[in-house]
Amino acid sequence: MSGATEKHDGAVLDRSISKKQADSSQDNSVMGNEIYGEIAEYDDNVSRADLEKQKTAQGEAHFNRLGWKRLTIILIVEAIALGSLSLPKAFATLGMVAGTIVSVGLGLLAIYTSDVVGQVKIKFPEAAHYADAGRLIAGRFGYEVIGAMFVLQLVFLVGSHCLTGTIAFGNIVDITKTGTCSLVFGGVSAIILLILAIPPSFAEVAILGYIDFVSIVLAIGITIIATGVQASKSPGLHNVAWSAWPKEDLSFADAFISVTNIVFAYSFSICQFSFMDEMHTPKDYKKSIWALGLIEISIYSLTGALIYAFVGPDVKSPALLSAGDTISRIAFGVALPVIFISGSINTTVVGRYIHGRVYKNSVTRYINTPKGWGTWLALVFIITVIAFIIAESIPFFSDLLSISSSLFVSGFTYYFPPIMWVMLIKEGPVWAPHNRVKAVLNLFAFIVGIVVLVGGTYSSIVDIMQNYRNGSIGGVFSCKPIG
After folding, report:
1. Is residue 88 within 8 Å of 317, Cβ to Cβ?
2. How far is Cα 320 from Cα 54, in angstroms, rounded to an integer?
3. Residue 120 φ then ψ, to 5°
4. Per the record, a Pfam family (predicted)?
5. What are the residues facing 66 on neighbouring strands?
6. Per DSSP, which regions of 145-286 are E strands?
7. Other beta carbons within 10 Å of 433
8. What's the maximum distance between 2 C-alpha atoms anywhere in the chain?
């Protein structure tokens, strides 16, 4: 297996070097001056062309090391974190039956749309990020619009993790007793997210993925066991007031916020182009998305159903808050790796997109020269600061996830893939016999995405206004405890 990988990587390097050598003399002149200034210190006796080839070969090799197993781990790092913590509250709102149906149904639909994304990447290997698919669909306009959505969604994700880190530290330390300002923990969370986002290669982050996965499984397991033990003692499992049906007087806004929290949990396809771009065998992506999808559906459905059944309608979001003071502190402590590792990967993805776009025709994009590292560190810092501002401006967990899901995940996971299927990979008429099942699935996914976009955005705005109006949350950049 390793021999095949080395052979493949060598072919990639040869093609990239040949492409560089075939560039116009004007491009070589411009590139040569910049590259020479950046990397001449490495070997003064090597020509500019050789320096360019050397750093390009190193960059291509460094960013082409993912296999399907590592892709699965990196998808787990990006996907299974915040979503699982919001599911029990969503189940409490929708009821056990509807919660389970929505969780399993949206999960299976997300696997299908991710398969569509993978097919597009295989057919158009030049699509390095989701924004590139926008270019394939609608030219420069599609590239810019989807690129902006891509950046905003990932920055919102980092902000969500920063907010969760603040909640975690606040509960571990118990700032209601110590009086520590929650802004301090917000700052600490942002710094940790920044440090973990410094490695630019997804293969490097994948190594942390094993710690990430163990962390979230243990945190969820501790919460499930603790809430189950508490329920068995008082009031007794048979007396927990969970319901198979939606809660009474359920408002449209509450229902849709719960649905969008579940949508958020299946947002892994947004980074799929970016991750697959580092695979040495991209066609193996199917193994990864099915492994991830089934793991997600199992974890989310069991987490949502069990914790809701043990706690009842008063379950909190994130769910770790429902395990009691002592157990919540332990669970949050165990969950710290997943909070920060999963958050940092989103910084890396959006940073790679912006950095690669700015330095598209420069060796700087490989982040293996002084200028490359300097610009990369500056970019990671800026992204983290913006995410921190978002976290402090929208300091309530469910609504922050709902806004993100409604505006962005609805498209990346549900209504963009059907458009790509019709415009980029469909073979023959839509209603040809071999396309009928796919056409129905894509139409359903498109409808789900549009409904979440409109209904979820409206519900998020209504709920945020209500939260501020009734004083249930503090103001922006407040020292008040969060969660």
Report:
1. yes
2. 49
3. -65, -45
4. Aa_trans
5. 279
6. none
7. 8
8. 80
Where would I find the H helices in 66-129? 68-79, 82-94, 96-123
Of 73, 290, 98, the C-alpha closest to 202 is 73
Residue whose token pair is 């200028």: 371
Round to whole Å and give the CA distance between 250 and 127. Answer: 43
Considering the entire predicted model, what is its pTM?
0.79
The alpha-carbon radius of gyration of the chain (Å, integer) is 23
Hunting for tokens 């809701």 — which residue is that? 308
CA angle 331, 264, 323 (to 5 degrees): 20
Dist CA 465 CA 469 (whole Å): 6
Q: Tens-digit pLDDT profile for the chain (483 aa)?
A: 444 444 444 444 344 434 434 443 334 443 444 444 444 444 444 565 565 556 555 545 445 556 778 778 878 777 776 567 778 999 999 999 999 999 999 999 999 999 999 999 999 999 999 999 999 999 999 999 999 999 988 998 898 889 889 888 988 887 777 777 888 999 999 999 999 999 887 777 777 888 888 898 898 899 999 999 988 887 778 888 899 999 888 888 889 888 888 888 888 889 899 889 888 888 899 999 999 899 999 999 999 999 999 999 989 877 888 888 888 889 889 989 988 998 898 999 899 999 989 988 888 888 888 888 999 999 999 999 999 988 887 766 566 667 877 888 899 999 999 999 999 999 999 889 999 999 999 999 999 999 999 998 898 888 878 877 776 665 667 777 665
Residue 396: left (phi > 0), alpha (psi -120 to 50), or beta?
Answer: beta
Q: Tell me, rounded to whole angstroms, the distance of Cα 194 from its chain centroid.
A: 16
- Measured distance CA(40)–CA(47) in Å, rounded: 9
For the CA atoms of 77, 78, 80, 85, the dihedral, rounded to the nearest 10 degrees, stands at 120
* Residue 279 bridge partners (DSSP): 66
Q: Please state, in angstroms and rounded to a whole number, the distance separating the CA atoms of residues 204 and 395.
A: 31
Task: Please report, as a single letter, which amino acid is at residue 260.
Answer: T
Check the CA dihedral 154-156-157-162 and report its sign: positive
Close Cβ partners of 273 (under 8 Å, ≥ 6 residues apart): 117, 120, 121, 127, 128, 129, 130, 132, 133
